[in-house]
Amino acid sequence: MKRNYHVKFLNEKDVELAEAVCMASEDYYLIEQDKPASKNDALKIITEIPDGKTRFDKFVLAVLDEHEKPIGLVDIVSDYPRKGRWFIGLLLLTPDARNNGLGKVLHQTIKEWANDGGADSLAIAVLEENEKGRGFFEHLGYTKQETKEATYGEKKQQVAIFVLDIK
Fold it and tell me: Cβ of 5: how many Cβ atoms within 10 Å?
C-alpha cells in the first residue's frame, strides 16, 4: 500500500465516510454483533460519547487514501476513564488496507498525539473473539488489565481492556 493517505476529522455530516469503512469491514461486525454494519452503527461511532465527557473530548477520524476513498476509522476519547489515559474506542482498517504496516503507523501517530496531549497511557477494548485485533495490540506492547461483558446489537461479548504506558 502506498503511504499516500491522510485523515479527516468527522462530525455527523460525514457519516457516509464512516459508513463506507464499516460496510467494507463486514468481517469485524460479524464478530462484534453477528450481522453487517448499518448506517446507525457508523453514526454511533461519531456521536456516542461516554458519560462525563463532551464532544470536545472525542475525536473521530477517517483515514482516506490518495483517491479520497475511506480506508479506516479511528475513535479516541481523551482523559477517559481517567485523566491521563486516552481511550481508543476504535481503530478499524478495511480488509484491503490491513497487513501492510498502516495500523502501526496510525497507532504511532495516536501515541505521539496522546503524549503531546498529556496522556500517560492508552487503553483499548478488544473483543475476546477478535484474535487478530488482540494479537495486534499485544504485539504493540499492550497488556490485558481486565475483562468486561458488553452487548453489541443482541450479542453479548467478553471484552478485554488492554493498556499501554506511553510515558
Answer: 17
